[in-house]
Write a structure and sequence with these properties.
The structure holds two protein chains of two kinds.
Chain A lengths: L2 H54 L2 E2 L7 E2 L3 H8 L3 H16 L1 H16 L6 H9 L6 H11 L7 H8 L14 H26 L3 H9 L4 H12 L1 H16 L3 H6 L11 H10 L4 H26 L7
Antiparallel strand pairs in A: 1-2
Helix pairs in contact in A: 1-14, 2-3, 3-8, 3-11, 3-13, 4-8, 4-11, 5-8, 8-11, 11-14, 13-14
Chain B lengths: L1 H21 L9 E2 L5 E7 L3 H17 L3 E7 L3 H14 L5 E5 L14 H4 L12 H5 L2 E2 L2 E2 L2 E6 L1 E6 H6 L11 H11 L1 E2 L5 E8 L3 H11 L17 H15 L12 H6 L3 E7 L3 H7 L4 E5 L9 E2 L1 E7 L5 H14 L2 H10 L13 H9 L3 H6 L4 E2 L7 H16 L5 H20 L5
Parallel strand pairs in B: 2-3, 2-4, 10-11, 13-15
Antiparallel strand pairs in B: 1-2, 4-14, 5-6, 7-14, 8-11, 8-12, 9-10
Helix pairs in contact in B: 2-13, 8-9, 8-16, 16-17
Classes of the chains: A mainly alpha, B alpha/beta.
């Protein structure tokens, strides 16, 4: 390679570069133009309100009164006030308690997805049946489950208990049972979505791996342990992360079924936030709760990315 | 790259700013006036179902009889949702001209509402004296009348006449006071051979604080102090009533434990003898029940009958245009007029608001047509008002929690009410009063 060739090469580059850059800029601009509609909606309905509630959380603002800047007092109040703090802590505890449903849901969904991934008769019917709760509104599901959990002897679950000779229970009206009831319903209604995601994950695993392993003499358990499990990692990680976020912001079923009761046993942070905002109209305090809930979600998601993501194998 | 993001942010900000600014047509409130002086009013209301239909009828009647004013009514969801919308409309300057809302006088402190006295000063055609004073108190906050009563209800006792007959009780002779109530409830409670209750005698709907407050007032207890700075419901008179309530559940076992959310469906299923509810729900229950429903005035305590009113009121929002203000007042006057009050009473479970309404032939004929309305309308003379104060939402919830605690046995009535009082007092002191600078 001689000097003249290098020079020539350089000139070509110089000639090409500006127009390519221009074209790239134009493409970027076009891309943003296409994104504009959703960005506007995102800004107006998500980004702006989120930012606004961070601002509001530094005010005492009891509607319909005027807002007054109080710095971090709302946060201090939530964590240290003799009467408020215990309720706030209890709501955080309830939130984590409710999230216990997520891993249970994961295990059940995975088992069902493994079954539904087999070539069995009528598999389409089963897949549809398990997915149905997902396309039903949470409010409608809650109303039906209210009836299943009816505390009198003619509630469905109580009828079953009676026929088994077991004393009837108050279910949602019993402080000890209310949360497990909500978790059970949440597992049932959240399962369908997880199963579909798992099925997609299972079917993306190439069958050649299984065939090769079988030739090497692997049994069913080994197939699952050394092929399915590691290759399902990214799916699992996604389902876990989304599941935990959804569980932290669960609201509808609590509002319809228990209103946070009995004795605050199902008063999660998300519901507590709603109570403060729309029953007491204390917007500053409610916003502070919202910001704390956001930080909690951020922290949990970060932990999952930091520690769980590491152990996930990407193909 | 960075530049294009910046441009984009600017575009987005501009677009979102246009959305807010462009829609403003008149300064200082909604409504409009055309060149001929015809006024269009925005009216928000918070009643759905049959009651919502009655409001739409009244709006139509008004529009037909007032050619220069056109009212456009919009349903805004229940009281809580509608109030949240009003609050955001105050901030966004998108208020209607008139609204029908629950706990309406609380809006007085927002500065967005016109006090009723502003209109009474120039209009002598309307006589406030004719309205039962409880409804005026219900619309007063901090000594000022901010709203006017429209749809009002009181607590009432509904009962299943078939179950009365089955229990050997006279279906035309419901209990008069809480002692009789307990006797009746015992007779109506049925157990199976294993001692499991299959039918309860008594329950209340899930706005439990309202029924407990009624018992408080009848027993001479106070809810809140005169200056609205502290709750008074841990007095012996109040504790005695929560004790009675607790006994219904824990001692006499005539009321199911913490099952108020199911009370109405149990009643409709014929599994509950007597139900404490609101007069506003009577027509719905009557429609859905497969049995003969009876109604009685809320039971007395020691010969005293007092029923705290609930329901919705009308507010007029500030507006720079005098024509719009006057039209709003005309509309409100129409909605609370005697004719409208009669119409609303005939179409819904709400009760008339006028002192002498029990003597009106129209009201008498409503009762004749539907005897179930008798107890509700007859409650009118016993109407009282619980003061409307900023921490009312906190107080209602605190009372509901106190009831839950005693029913579930986690606190005795004195402790439960002490805790309720402490928590609301604390909220008033730390959250609702202006902090010291």
């Amino acid at each position: 390679m001689n000097l003249s060739m290098l020079k020539a090469d350089k000139t070509v580059k110089q000639q090409v570069a500006p127009s390519a850059k221009k074209r790239k800029n134009k493409e970027t601009f076009e891309a943003y133009l296409y994104l504009l509609p959703s960005l506007i909606i995102f800004t107006v309905f998500t980004f702006f309100p989120a930012f606004f509630s961070m601002v509001v959380s530094t005010f005492r603002w009891n509607l319909p009164g005027k807002a007054m800047f109080i710095g971090l007092e709302n946060y201090i109040y939530l964590f240290t006030d003799a009467i408020e703090a215990p309720i706030f802590w209890q709501s955080l505890g309830n939130t984590f308690y409710f999230a216990v449903g997520v891993p249970i849901n994961l295990i059940i969904s995975l088992l069902l997805a493994l079954l539904l991934n087999r070539k069995i008769r009528g598999v389409g019917v089963f897949r549809t049946a398990f997915f149905l709760p997902t396309i039903t509104s949470t409010a409608a599901i809650s109303v039906v489950w209210l009836w299943l959990f009816h505390p009198a002897q003619y509630g469905l679950f109580n009828s079953i208990l009676i026929s088994l000779g077991i004393p009837i229970q108050s279910w949602l009206r019993d402080p000890l049972l209310a949360m497990p009831c909500l978790i059970a319903m949440g597992i049932w209604s959240g399962m369908g979505y997880n199963i579909i995601i798992f099925l997609a994950g299972l079917q993306s695993i190439p069958s050649t791996y299984y065939e090769a392993a079988k030739i090497d003499g692997a049994n069913t358990f080994s197939l699952f342990r050394f092929i399915t499990w590691p290759l399902l990692g990214p799916t699992m990680f996604y389902v876990l992360t989304v599941g935990i976020i959804n569980s932290l912001k669960a609201f509808t079923e609590i509002d319809v079924m228990t209103q946070g009761g009995p004795l605050n046993a199902t008063n999660t942070t998300a519901y507590y936030l709603y109570q403060n905002a729309f029953q007491f109209f204390q917007m500053g305090k409610a916003s502070a709760i919202a910001v704390l809930l956001f930080l909690l979600m951020l922290l949990l998601t970060w932990i999952q990315f930091r520690f769980v993501d590491r152990s996930v194998h990407y193909e | 790259m960075k530049k294009s993001i910046l441009i984009l942010v600017i575009i987005v900000l501009l677009l979102s700013a246009c959305g807010g600014g462009g829609s403003e047509t008149s300064s200082g409130g909604g409504g409009s006036v055309d060149a001929d002086g015809n006024v269009t009013l925005d009216f928000w209301y918070a009643l759905g179902g049959d009651s919502g239909k009655a409001i739409e009828d009244l709006v139509n009647q008004f529009n037909e009889s007032h050619p220069n004013i056109k009212v456009v009514g919009t349903y805004q969801g229940n009281y809580t949702t509608a109030m949240a919308k009003v609050y955001s409309a105050i901030t966004g300057n998108t208020l209607p001209n008139v609204a029908q809302l629950g706990a309406a006088p609380l809006l007085g402190s927002s500065g967005a509402v016109l006090p009723v006295k502003d209109f009474l000063a120039t209009d002598t055609s309307f006589d406030l004296e004719k309205i039962h004073p409880a409804f005026l108190q219900y619309n007063t906050a901090a000594g000022e009348l901010w709203s006017l009563p429209f749809n009002n209800s009181v607590p009432i006792l509904l009962y299943n006449k078939e179950l009365f007959v089955a229990a050997g009780l006279d279906p035309e002779d419901p209990p008069e006071d809480i002692d009789e109530l307990l006797e009746y409830a015992k007779a109506l409670t049925v157990k199976d051979s294993n001692g499991v209750v299959t039918q309860y005698g008594l329950n209340t709907k899930d706005d439990t604080h309202w029924y407990l407050s009624t018992l408080f007032l009848e027993n001479g207890a106070q809810i809140v102090s005169e200056d609205e700075s502290e709750m008074l419901y841990n007095s012996p008179e109040a504790v005695a009533m929560l004790q009675t309530w607790s006994d219904w559940v824990n001692v006499d076992q005539v009321m199911p434990r913490n099952q108020h959310a199911e009370a109405q469906s149990d009643f409709l299923a014929g599994k509950l003898g007597m139900l404490m509810g609101s007069t506003s729900g009577v027509s719905g229950i009557q429609k859905d029940a497969a049995f003969r429903v009876g109604s009685a005035m809320f039971p007395m305590v020691n010969g005293v009958r007092k029923v705290p009113v609930g329901g919705g009121s009308l507010v007029i929002f500030k507006n720079d245009n005098e024509l719009i203000r006057n039209a709003s007042w005309e509309f409100v006057k129409f909605l609370i007029s005697e004719q409208s009050s009669i119409y609303l009473t005939s179409q819904t479970g709400y009760i008339p608001i006028y002192k002498d309404a029990l003597d009106w032939p129209e009201i008498e004929s409503i009762i004749e047509d539907n005897p179930l309305r008798l107890a509700a309308i007859n409650s009118l003379p016993y109407a009282v008002a619980i003061p409307v104060f900023s921490a009312l939402g906190n107080s209602d919830l605190a009372l509901q929690n106190a009831i839950e605690k005693v029913e579930l046995g986690s606190a005795d009535p004195q402790t439960a009410l002490d805790e309720a009082k402490t928590s609301v007092d604390h909220a008033i002191k730390t959250q609702f009063s202006t902090p010291s600078p």
